[in-house]
Amino acid sequence: SKHVIKNIPWTTAKNFTVERGQQQIEELISTWDIHESWRHHSEFLEEEELKDSKRYHYRACWALPTRRKPIPQATASVYFVIVISKFKPDTAPVEVFYRLESSRLIRRPEQCQFREKWLQDITENKILCAERL
């Protein structure tokens, strides 16, 4: 069966604010098929001015607390960039990209369904590394 890639209608450049960007990232995250035991918080990191665009950087930090270990041993971050083109009309939707902390691969929400396994891999690798030290 083909996976349906869930995405959200992104705000237009003219309606964009830093807060709206964070709300929309939360909205996107809510479409991801992730077990409810995972916890996350998102935050705005910085605004970057480029020749052709303005980029807004955010991070969602994920952890899996349990009753036995309420303070998780490791976290996994997902970095988001919301891009506002200086060449497109301000009625065009913003562009959104994300990448995992352990990867240089940049993904687009409309092209790639997020997978819980990615978060598991990052946190498990961190825990294994810490145990080796």
From TrEMBL:
A GO cellular component entry from the record: cAMP-dependent protein kinase complex
Q: Which domain of life is it from?
A: Eukaryota
Q: Which residues form a coiled coil?
A: none
Q: Which InterPro entries match?
A: AKAP (IPR053084), AKAP_28 (IPR025663)
Recall the GO molecular function terms of this protein's record. protein kinase A regulatory subunit binding
One Pfam family in the UniProt entry: AKAP28
PANTHER family from the UniProt entry: A-KINASE ANCHOR PROTEIN 14
What name appears for this protein in its UniProt entry?
A: AKA14 protein
Q: Which organism is it from?
A: Vidua macroura
Protein encoded by which gene: Akap14
